[in-house]
Amino acid sequence: MPNYTNPAARLHAVLSLFMEQQESGKAIQTVWAGTLGVSETQVPVELCRLAGLVPQIVETVHLGADEHQVDNVDYWSPRWAAVLTTSAQSGANATGFLKEDMLRNLGMTASYLSLVAPEGVIPDDEQLESLRGQVASLLEEARAADKLPLQLRTVLVRRLHDISYALDHVLVVGPDGVQAAVERLMCSLAASDTDGSDADGPDGILTRVRVAAGVVYGAFLFGPTAYQAIEGWGNIGQRMLGM
Questions:
Q1: Which of 73, 64, 128 is nearest to 105 (CA)?
Q2: How does pLDDT run across 84-135, given as a tens digit for each residue?
Q3: pTM value?
Q4: DSSP code of 25?
Q5: Interior angle at CA 209, CA 205 and CA 214, nearest 5
Q6: Backbone torsions φ then ψ of 234, nearest 5 degrees
Q7: Residue 27 three-state SS
Q8: To 5 degrees, how large is the angle CA 11–CA 91–CA 32?
Q9: What are residue 27's DSSP bridge partners?
Q10: DSSP collapsed to 3 states, 78-106
Q11: How many CB atoms lie within 10 A of CB 67?
């Protein structure tokens, strides 16, 4: 499976797929549709999402304070962004559109970030589908949980939707994005638990949500810490809030 564990690696994986197909003689939009696995009408939206990786790459490299890497990313990042934003509006032929030097320097940045700023791991496709199914099922339960206080149900639906979105767009958000969505859910649940109500919720839905959140969070962590995350998940929201 391609390396998606830092923003440069995620963009490099996508552009590498585009590079493989760009000499086909097809239009740019057609090649992007095949690369991204979407219809041609969806291509501009998906490219806008991908373009959001570029400032993430710049910010992460700058945090490392390596002068050579900073200079490199400052030079190439506008060019990587231009590939995405220009092709989103273009009907031209894809042949030769993406240049080898752009991809090569992006790969160098990805390798650097893999060493200094790894985010975690990406589960395989089968595990991802299982996680998506679990979250989707809980989201439907939450929408129908009319015994929950309205404010809590609204928060639960919103945060589960955030996790579902992150899992569906893991190619863009990466492990950090999924983990951040789970953390927002757990902090929201901890902050909402102020009325002394049953911690399990009606029919145990809150317990099921917490367990599923731990599984999702752990799936994107490096091996030794994943088990600890799942085992100790029950109080993570309270720990984050200092409660």
A1: 73
A2: 888 766 667 777 788 899 999 999 999 999 888 888 888 888 999 999 999 9
A3: 0.71
A4: S
A5: 150
A6: -55, -35
A7: strand
A8: 30
A9: 93
A10: HHHHHHHHHHHCCCCECCCCCCHHHHHHH
A11: 8
